[in-house]
Structures are given as structure tokens and as C-alpha cells.
Amino acid sequence: MYRKDSVAKEGDAGFPVESIRKRFPILHQEVNGRPLVYLDNAATSQKPLSVIQALNQYYSTDNANIHRGAHALAARATDQFERTRQMVKSFINSPSEEQVIFTKGTTEGINLVASSFGRKFIQEGDEIIISAMEHHSNIVPWQMLCEEKGAELKVIPITDEGELILETYEKLLTPKTKLVAIQHVSNALGTVHPISGIIEKAHEVGAKVLVDAAQSSSHFLVDVQALDCDFLAFSAHKLYGPTGLGILYGKRELLEVMPPYQGGGEMIKEVDFDGTTFNDIPFKFEAGTPNIADVIAFQKALEFIQELGKDRILAHENELLSYATDKLGSIKGFIPVGTASQKVSVLSFLINGMHPFDVGMMLDAMGIAVRTGHHCAQPLMKRFNIEGTVRASFAVYNTKQEIDTLYNSLSRIAKRKN
Ligand code: PMP
């Protein structure tokens, strides 16, 4: 039942990484006198020229407010905006485009569900389950909701390797469980969770499931119908798209009975001082002028991913991860953090005797961008009794040569203390 949602794929010798790199202008620069090696993709990925140009094009030729203008520019902007919704529908295999809601990002998607679904369907004494590995944005909204409602937050514990303890998860599930909010992939450790089984088990007790797909949607196929999740949230900026844009998917029968998240223009049918009627989904959840330019430019990011194919992207990233894990693992004093059997894109580690922040600063001086710190997962860091880690995370444009550069720099840094 907890089949491993397969992520391992063979590498692709003919993968056109060099021509892919040419499409990302930002990669071709020096930082601190060295060619930039960008390995902070779990924080945000870089954008291909097509996305950058689409933003420019929109403001140069089509800019208008959508859904209400009677003129040509408004019609063009509206068509393009709604075209992205269609593309996202196909990207996640949503049954309809009305179930695709544009948000600011994963964080806002989760907060929308906590505010709207939570306010209506979570009552005193109910239980919400999350995991010990969640990003703060999938912890704090539930804490706030539980406090407001007198509900209880329960936490799935993890092993030393960084995997969920599923036997305990099953014990936590009771008829009081109303929601399971779980990440698909850990941003701090790269663990891929067996969410199909987690969703199945939650549904057996009648609980709904929200999947935080912030770290999975850029690496492998996320099919909301195959997963049968009730909600799924992700951010465009981790998917080669613009910042300030996210997607929330929800099952129709839930979205239709959930109250609006914010009030304002666009989300209404009719407003009267005696009362207001709300718009249909998805507009009920999209109050105010949305992030039109970024929604439209996101099409180019989706086209970029489709053109390469998610399977090939994943195969390339898996090859990088296993190459980096082996190579860096040979450095004296290298301590991996998170050694789950199913991982994607992320290599978190410590260097014996050194603070992760110092390691990050030294790598930066050599032109290498990694993330250091708690990765917005402080409870996870506490579980491991550490303050933070150094995190290298890989994307479609990274190369083995860049990992060699990381290896050489890290070897020199580690030698100081080991
Ligand atoms: N969840 C996970 C697993 C993440 O990695 C992130 C971003 N680091 C978020 C949620 C929040 O995403 P955003 O900041 O784009 O809203």
C-alpha cells in the first residue's frame, strides 16, 4: 500500500544540458571572480529567456485588466490569462480548469485552505496531521487554525534517515482526523514521501488531504487525479516560472462549498448592502486584480518543461544527485543529513567542525550559490539536534562539472578542520 511512488530513472547520455544552459541568461556571469555555479534551486529556480521575454512582451503590447474590460487589450490579456489556467489543468491533470486557482504561491494556497476549508469544516476536538519535516508554511497556518478552533495538531515522526514513520502515521489517524497536510518532497532533505499510500490511508478515516507540492512539481509528474488528493499547492518560481505566483488545486465538491478566502472585486456575482452573492469557482477565490503578467509568462515555463519532458528532467537530476552524493561523500568530514532511499534533487550536509553558514560564505566567495540554515524547517533541525545544514539542490541546467567545482571547493574548505 505504501508502494514507493517511483522516482528513480536512468540518466540520459544525450541530454542537451549545454543548449539548455544557453536559454538561461543569468547563469552566464561571474560571481566573486568565478563563473557562477547556481545550486540553490530548491529555494527558487532560474528563468529561461522565453519567460523573461514574455513578461516584457505582455507589458509592451497587451497590458490591461482582465475579465471586465470591453476593449481589445483587455480581451487579449484575458484570453492569455485563461490560457495559462488551461495549461496548468493539463500539467497537473485536473479534471477541469475551474479547479485551478491562482495564488501568490504555495504559502498562500495553504493559507487559503486553512482559512476557508478550516474555518468551515474544522471544529473543536478535531485533529489535523502534519509531519515533522514540513516547511513552516505547512505548519504555522495549521497551528493558527488549531488555536482558533480548539483543534489538535498531530505530527508524524521521522527516522534518522529522514523518512516518515508510517506505522505511527496509521496510529495517529482516527475518525477525529479531518485533514492531513503533507509535503510531497522535503525541501530540507529531498526525501520523496510515499504520498499515494498516505492519501489512501487518510481517506479510509474520512480525512481530506492537502499536498504541498512545492518541491515535487518541478521534478516529476504530479497527477492530482491519480493521487486522489483533495488539495494540492505549488509555486511557479520553483518551476522556472515567475515569483509571486502559485497554484492551488482543489476537488470541485470541496471548493464549491468552501467560503471565500478574501472579499473584493472579481469574487462576487452581485453586491448589495443587504448582502452579496459570490462568484463561481475559481473566481470566488481570486479577489482583486491578479498577477496577470506573471500568470501569462508562466506559460513559457510550462512549455519549456513540456518540451524537455519531465521524465528526462528527472533522469538528469537523479544522475546529478547520485553523482554528487558519491563524490561529496568521499570528502573527509562530510556528513550527509537525510539519507532516505527515495530522494530527489537535494543534498543536505554538514562539514565536521564547521558552522553551515561559514561553509556557505566560503562557497559563495568561490562563486558557488548554496543555501545554509534551517530551510524554514526548524522542527526538523531540532529533531536532528542541529542548527541548520548546507544544501545543494539541482535543476535541469546543472552539470557534473559544476558538481566537480563544488567538490573541489568543499574539499579545500573541509581540509581546514578535518
Ligand atoms: N513548502 C515547501 C516544501 C517549500 O519548499 C516551500 C518554499 N521553500 C514552500 C512550501 C513555500 O513556498 P512559497 O515561499 O513559494 O510560498
Verbal overview:
With 418 residues, the chain is α/β, with parallel strands linked by helices. It has two domains: 2-48 and 309-415, Aspartate Aminotransferase, domain 1 (Alpha-Beta Complex); 52-305, Type I PLP-dependent aspartate aminotransferase-like (Major domain) (Aspartate Aminotransferase, domain 2, 3-Layer(aba) Sandwich). It has 14 helices and 17 strands. The strands form five sheets. Strands 4-10-9-8-7-5-6 form a seven-stranded mixed sheet, sandwiched between helices. Helix 7 (195-204) links the parallel strand 7 (177-183) and strand 8. Helix 2 (49-62) packs antiparallel against helix 10, helix 4 (106-121) runs parallel beside helix 5 and helix 11 (310-329) runs parallel beside helix 14. The structure holds 4'-deoxy-4'-aminopyridoxal-5'-phosphate. The site of 4'-deoxy-4'-aminopyridoxal-5'-phosphate has 13 residues, from helix 4.
Question: Could you outline the blueprint of secondary structure elements for this entry?
Answer:
Elements (H helix, E strand, L loop, with lengths): L16 H6 L7 E2 L2 E2 L1 E2 L10 H14 L9 H21 L7 E4 L2 H16 L5 E5 L8 H10 L2 E5 L9 H7 L4 E7 L11 H10 L3 E5 L11 H4 L3 E5 L10 E5 L1 H6 L10 E5 L2 E4 L13 H17 L1 H20 L4 E3 L9 E6 L4 H10 L2 E2 L1 E3 L4 H6 L5 E5 L6 H16 L3
Parallel strand pairs: 3-15, 5-6, 5-7, 7-8, 8-9
Antiparallel strand pairs: 1-2, 4-10, 9-10, 11-12, 13-14, 14-17, 16-17
Helix pairs in contact: 2-10, 3-10, 4-5, 11-14
The structure holds 4'-deoxy-4'-aminopyridoxal-5'-phosphate.
4'-deoxy-4'-aminopyridoxal-5'-phosphate (PMP) binds next to helix 4.
